[in-house]
């Protein structure tokens, strides 16, 4: 179990038996669908309607679908999974019994801790990391009309991220008030630094926002104006499979590239309801970029070798261009139909791995949009993920450009030739393997294209420094 290391001791939070809820009687979001737009930090290239040309270099690596292209002045839009993480030290973790666990969570909710223990979570992690790289981002989702929702809105606004609310003109009495509350995730740490998670999504067979049944005009507009729509498996905790499938279908229709990270939910969704399985399969087939850990790739394909598993996902895909396998401290692999790129991770002092995968995805989006060489894209993603691991927690604690620059400049790779040789010691059926030059790969009959690390660094640093000058973020 992963241990959370906290910068300063957090006093024990003892759940109150007295109800003192801070949620209003009906916490539905009453503000307009488009709550606020992203902050413009720089002149921005746009993808414009077919027939008028595309000004983004390389047409986004050729990944944008050719039909129905619209003006795309937003880089990334995230779909759902907006929550507030509350990190607390507790005398003991919540009990395993579902009823007692829910009662424990309800007592926590009735007596909320100091705001200094709140943090933006879920897809906020990816959006914040992407915005700090200079990408223009929108968060599409629902937050309640209470203090937790306002906290999320404030964080997103401070980071320059736009917010597009998901709402429907449904009967306010058709669902309980809690159905509209901002989703909370309680991150609980005991005396042995073990941690557990509690969320109301854990205690319901229905998605938290099951009252959302269709995409609003505003949400469709946000998808249409974005180069990338990012979805992850946790989105199913909030949104119905039908709504997620509608977003995927619409993104394909309007030429928005889809990034999908199934996460731990991939395994349960693959054995879930027919609707969940259908939406999962749609995402796996229609996503332009799939991002998984090696364990997640194996669980979806039954293949242990991460490259062979990635190749299987490529074969099953319709739109799939890239499959990226995240391997934590070992590094990452990018698999296409014609070749493989790999990059070992950078050595960093790991404090907390929460949010590393989300930060990694943000940097993959950065490389994808800027048409960077694939091995460079992996290198910057490894650096951004590593920079997040050096901090404590996610949300506003994800990678800053200052930390990313220091990691890239240090160029201290976590070399493990034995690990890579074992992965490549199979017939992979590809024409070329591209790797950072410090990798020594034996036993492969494929052509190895070594890219010097210093060459990659010399190409990354100007881009990162430019992003640092164009955007003022905490460093």
Your description of this structure?
The protein has 475 residues and is α/β, with parallel strands linked by helices. Helix content is 34%, strand content 18%. It has 14 helices and 16 strands. The protein has helices at residues 98-110, 123-132, 147-158, 217-224, 241-253, 265-270, 274-286, 294-301, 306-316, 356-369, 374-389, 401-410, 417-424, 453-470, and strands spanning 34-36, 74-79, 82-89, 118-122, 137-141, 162-165, 183-189, 195-198, 226-232, 257-261, 289-293, 322-326, 331-335, 339-344, 432-436, 447-451. The strands form 2 sheets. Strands 1-6-5-2-9-10-11-12-13-14-15-16 form a 12-stranded mixed β-sheet, with helices on both faces. The protein has a 4-stranded mixed β-sheet with strand order 4-3-7-8. Strand 7 (183-189) and strand 8 form a beta hairpin.
């Amino acid at each position: 179990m992963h241990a959370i290391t906290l910068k300063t001791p957090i006093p024990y939070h003892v759940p109150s038996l007295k109800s003192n809820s801070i949620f209003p009687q009906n916490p539905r979001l009453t503000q307009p669908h488009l709550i606020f737009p992203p902050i413009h930090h720089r002149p921005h290239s746009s993808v414009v309607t077919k027939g008028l040309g595309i000004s983004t270099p390389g047409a986004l690596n050729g990944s944008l679908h050719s039909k129905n292209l619209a003006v795309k002045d937003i880089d990334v839009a995230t779909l759902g999974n907006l929550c507030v993480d509350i990190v607390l030290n507790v005398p003991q973790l919540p009990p395993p019994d579902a009823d007692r666990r829910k009662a424990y969570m309800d007592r926590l909710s009735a007596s909320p801790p100091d705001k200094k223990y709140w943090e933006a979570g879920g897809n906020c992690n990816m959006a914040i990391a992407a915005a700090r790289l200079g990408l223009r981002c929108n968060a599409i989702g629902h937050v309640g009309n209470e203090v937790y929702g306002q906290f999320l809105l404030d964080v997103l606004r401070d980071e320059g991220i736009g917010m597009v609310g998901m709402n429907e003109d449904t009967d306010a009495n058709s669902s309980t008030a809690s159905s509209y509350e901002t989703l909370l995730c309680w991150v609980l740490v005991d005396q042995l630094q073990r941690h557990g998670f509690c969320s109301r999504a854990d205690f319901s067979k229905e998605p938290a926002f099951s009252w959302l049944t269709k995409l609003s005009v505003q949400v469709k507009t946000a998808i249409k104006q974005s180069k990338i729509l990012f979805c992850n498996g946790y989105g199913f905790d909030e949104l119905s499979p039908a709504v997620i499938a509608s977003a995927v279908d619409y993104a394909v229709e309007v030429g928005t590239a889809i990034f999908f990270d199934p996460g731990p939910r991939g395994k349960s969704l693959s054995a879930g309801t027919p609707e969940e399985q259908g939406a999962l399969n749609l995402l796996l087939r229609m996503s332009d970029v799939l991002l998984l850990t090696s364990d997640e790739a194996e669980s979806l394909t039954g293949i242990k070798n991460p490259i062979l598993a990635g190749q299987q996902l490529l074969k099953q895909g319709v739109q799939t261009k890239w499959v990226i396998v995240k391997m934590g401290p070992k590094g990452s692999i990018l698999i296409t139909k014609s070749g493989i790129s790999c990059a070992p991770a950078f050595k960093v002092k790991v404090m907390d791995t929460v949010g590393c995968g989300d930060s990694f995805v943000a940097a993959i989006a950065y490389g994808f949009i800027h048409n960077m060489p694939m091995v460079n894209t992996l290198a910057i993603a490894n650096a951004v993920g590593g920079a997040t691991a050096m901090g404590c927690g996610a949300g506003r604690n994800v990678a800053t450009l200052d930390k990313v620059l220091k990691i890239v400049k240090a160029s201290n790779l976590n070399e493990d030739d034995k690990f890579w040789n074992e992965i490549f010691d199979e017939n992979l059926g590809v024409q070329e393997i591209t790797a950072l030059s410090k990798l020594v790969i034996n036993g492969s009959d494929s052509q190895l294209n070594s890219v010097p690390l210093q060459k990659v660094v010399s190409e990354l640093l100007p881009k990162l420094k430019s992003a640092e000058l164009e955007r003022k973020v905490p460093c």
